[in-house]
Specification:
This protein has helices at about 25-40, 60-65, 80-85, 90-100, 105, 125, 165-170, 185-195, 225-240, and strands at about 5-10, 50, 70-75, 110-115, 120, 135-140, 150-165, 210-215, 220. The chain is an alpha/beta fold. A hairpin with a 6-residue loop joins β8 (about 210-215) and β9.
Amino acid sequence: MDKLPPILLTSSVTAMDQSVQLKDEKLRVFHTLESIQKWLDISPQNKYVLCDGSGFDFSLLVLERFPGANIECISFSNDPDLIRLHGKGYGEGEIIRYALEHSKTLLQSQWFVKCTAKLWVDNFLECIQSWNGHFVCQAFFSNVFSFKKSQLEYVDTRFYMIDKDFYVNHLSKAHIGIGGPSGIGIEERFLEMVTREKLSRFLFEIPPVVCGMGGGSGKYYKDSRVRRLKERFRAWLVSQNSEFKLLFYKH
């Protein structure tokens, strides 16, 4: 098993889903290159795959900005009509599918990390310690700080680690049929999978600190000591709940 899995950055310079807040293509390129620089600062020994689903070729920009870095750039053109119908989660699913079929880097690895382009994870090297051999992610729980009953609401699909065969067998079609009349998002589809498969130990023990520009929300996420403490406290509270204790990775 590879000690450092390749990191797949899923990109779409052209925002085909018009519900997203960040549509400016120059800004989307800028923040994607920013995230690559941050990833290289965090884990320079990693292999990276940048796959763009709007036909934008990053090869020359990446070669110019990051000479010598191990970054494979691939691209293709997603179906804009299907993305308009099903949303950006559909487009992301197609990007991952294409990357798994065409990336030489991913072909040579048993597992990979997926992160939405324009984002990075400041504590990535801590998070990787939670690898369980199948699938590790972050999730959102409701009512953590209240007396109401907490519930597992959805899986955070911005960043996760996954075995390649596990993805193909359980999640490669998760984006099919989302959005539109169903109203179901990709996050809920991932939640359906972990519930159906009765997965345990699939949540990071230390919450990922996701930073950078959220293309969908238009918000810029920054790291801070207060944020890390709050997210760790939230995870600790949930892990003490007997209903959810077995979901968290433990050494």
